[in-house]
Structure formats: structure tokens, C-alpha cells
Amino acid sequence: MPEQRGTRRGQARPGGAGDGAHRTYSVRARRSRSATTARNNRNRFAVGRIALTMLLVAAGLKLGHIQAFEASALSERAERQRTTIIDIPAERGSIVDRNGAELAFSVETRKLWVSLRQMRQTWAEQARENPGSGENFDTRAAEIADHIAAQVPDLVTEEELLDAFHKDAAFTYLVDDVEPTVADEISERYPEIGFEKRAKRVYPGGELAANVVGYANWRTESEQVSEHNIHGLSGLEFFRDEDLVGTPGRQIVDTAQGTDVVIPGTERDVQAATAGSDLELTLDSDVQYELQRSLGAYVDKADAEAGSAVILDARTGEVYGLANDHSFDPNQPPDSSDALANPAVSTPFEPGSVAKVVTATAAIEAGLVGPDSTLAVPGSIKVADHTVHDAWPHGTQDFTATGVFAKSSNVGTLQLAQRLGPDRFLAALTKFGIGQRTGVGLPGESAGYVPPREQWSGTTFGNLPIGQGLSMTVVQMTSMFQAIANGGERVEPRIVSAKLAPDGSRIPEPAPRTTRVTDPKTADVVKDMLRATTQDGDYNYSGTAPEAALEGYQISGKTGTGQQVDPDTGGYSDRLHNITFAGILPADEPRFVVGIWLDAPDTTIPEGNSAAPLFREIASYLAQRYNIPVSEESAPTKRLVR
């Protein structure tokens, strides 16, 4: 039988015995593969369990290490990230006058701030959670700005606050000088708003003694000074800042993560602040007010560029008043530093004839003349190649020594100076303190100028004895006459009498230096000679300043007219002058010495030609304020020209 197509030899036909064997083989193969897969899975699970176990063991070991060895350090690091040490401002000391009246003091204020980053996050979340409320950062900022501006309208506007809220910053200050109760109300109503405790310097007298007291304020960060205390920027506030400022304390606070926002209730003190000391001045506020008022009015009447005046205690050298015609309000300090200047101590000038007191004192002490000695005085005198004239034309006349100074004769003064000689004259200048700072205790004090002896030319000694070619401040000038009023002993003027410590103790300033200028007898003779300056009468009896006389009191004084340098020519000007006056009240029992300087007044009018009327006004006030007894007798009238 022929074979069927499609079959090969040895191939089992369907349904035959070979088909069953094939099926048996397939089942076995599948079972083998399943077993292999299961074994592989079990192996993978085992490896995974081992890896996981090792990971957990490693994590446990790391955790154990951290807990055992690093926990303290990590905790400390976290604490440092959360805590901040801030300064606690110290209370700045006050400045008071001799009677305890406050000229400068500090009041507690608040400076409002906001963490813009946190506020944006808070109100963005609020807007997401309440999409229909209409409340978001912008509406909240507008509400807060409106409220703050209404509470402190004199400090900030709503527009300024809105600008602050919308600046590109994480944190910003909003407004300073807010009263504590107002700040508390704002912060309670709007928790976003925080505040710093600050202080504000207050000057209740405004311009009163401002050139002396100066002003203080918060310094800018660019000046690299702590922002946690007010610091002085001019006057005594600057000069005695170390005494006034105190020592800030330190406080630990917790701040919200990533911000400067202090978490309420986390404040704890590390070190309390120590308040600064108060300064007690020698000034009398009432005297200072009257001096500023009268000087300013007189400078206006004299059409002067400026003016300064000083009142010293005749015995102690204490400054009762020190004024300039220009002042400023330290509650609103000016931008210009010129307004902060104190010309009474910082601006020297050529004083003119008021400096003749040096020649008078040295000549009397040397025994060259007595008060009634007679000198034949011509109308002019030649010194080297320079001719010096008296202020009025006259031929040779017999002047008494008293008359030389009471009538302010340049020629007579130079005659006495030539007898004295330049070395003895220079020694007298030095004793009077000319060319040296007085040590009054104010910043910017000038020493004035006396040319060194080796630089004197032939004409130098024709200028110095009559108050030209040297310069001094009005404080130096007044100090010269204080020495005459005080029996020949010059006491260093001073304006601070004591520090008042926070514990209430009073610490007096070091005793002022004293210099024996001349002997008491000479000082009294010179003082009595200068009473004739205020005499009135005909030519033979009249001094240069009868307008300085004060009824009931003996007055000693000296006038001065010094030429200023013409800025255009560099030589002495015929129209620009320093007008000066120094006087003693009363001459028989000196209580006060007053010095006045007028800068370039109009000398064609009476007020501009003499400061004597201003002295009388000031002396009259002092006599009334301090109930100074009238002189027991009038000064004897002296004949000045024989």
C-alpha cells in the first residue's frame, strides 16, 4: 500500500501512540519552568529582604549615632537658627540747666515694622481658602495703611505706607516715633504689624541754647554705628556722647523660621541696659533766652552779618549764657552743617581796642604808670615804616593813663607798649590765654592766633597792642576780663558743672584750671580805670561808651573796633569791622562779665558803631534777675585829658 502524502517515515500519525508521549513531555516542561520561576522569585525576595534589613540596620545605626553623639550639636544648631540676640536700647541721659530745667531729654517711642514675606504668604492662603471673600494681601495692606495713617497723621501718609507694603522686600519698617499706646493698639488690631522699642530726643526749648546743646538722633547704618542707641551729632550731645549714651542691654528672642519676626512671649533678658548720665550745665535757661533774644534783635538793628555774646560768672568762670544770633531747632535739625556751628567758640576775630586791657595790665604791674600818670599823646605815632593814628584827629594832648584806655587812644597805648617791650607784652598775652583754647568744654573751640615771636616784623608791635594782627573768640575775650574782675586770677570757663549718674549721685566736673594773670592790686587798679569808659561829659571827661552805663551800678568796660580783612584786596578794609565790648557788672563787687562781638555791622548808624547799648540791656536784665545790690556809691568822675 502506497504511503500517505505528507507523512515522513517514523513520524507518528495523529491519534497514534506518539501523540500521547508529546503531551506528557509538554506538561513536564511547563512544570519545570514554573519551578524555576518560583525559585528565582524566592531568591529575589530573599535578596530584597536582606537589602531592606541591611538598610534598616544602617538607618538604626545612624540614628543611634545621631542620638548618642550628634543630638546635642544638632539641637544647638536648630536653636541657633531659631533664636536671635538683639540689643536693648539704653535710656539716654538728659541735659539740664543749673536749675534743673530740661534742655534735652528722651521719650520712649515705637518703630512699626512688617514681615512682607509672611504677610504675603498668609493672605495668599486666605484668598485660596476663601475665594469669594475678596480678601487678599492688597486689600489687607490698604486697610492697615488707612488705619495707621489715621492714627499718626503727622508722621506718615497712607500713600507712603502703601508704597512700603508693596516694595520688593521681605521685611520693611513703616513709621517711626509712634507713641507706645498707639503702637500697642495697632499691633493688637493687626497682628502682622510688629514694633521695636525706640527713643526720641526732645528739645522743649526749641532754639534755646541749641548751638550749645546740639542734637542727637539715630545714626544711619552707613556710618557703621549701632542702631540701638541715639547718638549725638553736634554740640554737647556729640561732645559728651559717651556720658549720655549709656550701655545697651542684650535680649534673646525666638524668630519665625526664615524671617526677622519675633515670636511673642519668647523674649528673655540676658543683660539689662544701663542708662546714661544726665549732664548739669552752668547755663541759666532764662538768662540764655534773654541773651539770644536781645542779641538777635540788636544784630538786626545794627545790620550786622552776625553776632555772639557770652556771660561768665566773675568768680567761677561758669558760663551763664552763650549765644549766637543764628540758631536752629534741634527738633527739626537743618540739612546745612553751617547752622549747627557755634561761632562764640569756633570763630576767632581781630578784636580791636578791647584787647588794650593787656597793655594796661602789664604797664600798671610793671610800675611804668599809675592811673593818674600823664602822657603827652600826639595824634599819630610811627612804628617801623607804619604810621598809626587815633580814631579822631587831635594834636599832642596830655592824657592820663586812665584816659588813654577810657578814650581808647591807639597812640597812647603804643607809647606804653614800647616802654613795656615786646617780650613782656607777649608774656602778658600768654597769661591772658590768647592763642590758647579756654577749655570751656564745647566742641570746635578755636585757640585764636598770636603770631610766633620769631615771625614778628617791625610793624607787628604796632598792631598787636591795639588788637590787630591777632585773633580771639568771644569766649577768650570775655575770659580776659573775668581775670580782671576776679582779682587777677583767670579761671578756665566751663559750661558743664556735673554728671548726674543713674543711681542719683552727683559727680562734679574736675576743678577748672586757674592762671595768675596779675596781682590783685593791679587787677583792681585796671578795673577801676576802666570805669571811666562809661563816663559821660565833655571831651575831657567822656569815655567811649557812656551808653553802657547802668543807673545805680558801677560799670567797668572796654570798647573795640577792629578792622576786618577785605576779601577782595587782602588788606584791611575801611568798611568792614568787628565791633566789640566787654564789661563787668558791678565794678565794685563783680558778679558777671559780659562779652559781645558784632560781625561787620553798619558802622554809619549808632547801633552798628558800638555794642555798649546791648551790654546795658543785658546788664539790666542780670541785675534784676539776680537782685544784684546797687553800688554803695557812684564811681568817681575822672578827668581823662588835662
From TrEMBL:
Any coiled-coil regions, as ranges: none
Keywords: Cell cycle, Cell division, Membrane
Single biological process term from Gene Ontology: cell division
Segments for region (Disordered): 1-40
UniProt xrefs under InterPro entries: Beta-lactam/transpept, Beta-lactam/transpept-like, PBP_dimer, PBP_dimer_sf, PCN-bd_Tpept
Record bears the keyword Hydrolase: no
Pfam families reported for this sequence: PBP_dimer (PF03717), Transpeptidase (PF00905)
One Gene Ontology cellular component: plasma membrane
Compartment(s): Membrane
Gene3D superfamilies: 3.30.450.330, DD-peptidase/beta-lactamase superfamily, Penicillin-binding protein 2a (Domain 2)
Record domain Penicillin-binding protein transpeptidase: where: 307-619
SUPFAM superfamilies: beta-lactamase/transpeptidase-like (SSF56601), Penicillin binding protein dimerisation domain (SSF56519)
Ranges where the Penicillin-binding protein dimerisation domain occurs: 88-256
Listed GO MF terms: penicillin binding
Predominant location category: membrane
PANTHER family assigned: PEPTIDOGLYCAN D,D-TRANSPEPTIDASE (PTHR30627), PEPTIDOGLYCAN D,D-TRANSPEPTIDASE FTSI (PTHR30627:SF1)
Family: Belongs to the transpeptidase family.
Protein name from the UniProt record: Cell division protein FtsI
Species annotation: Saccharomonospora piscinae
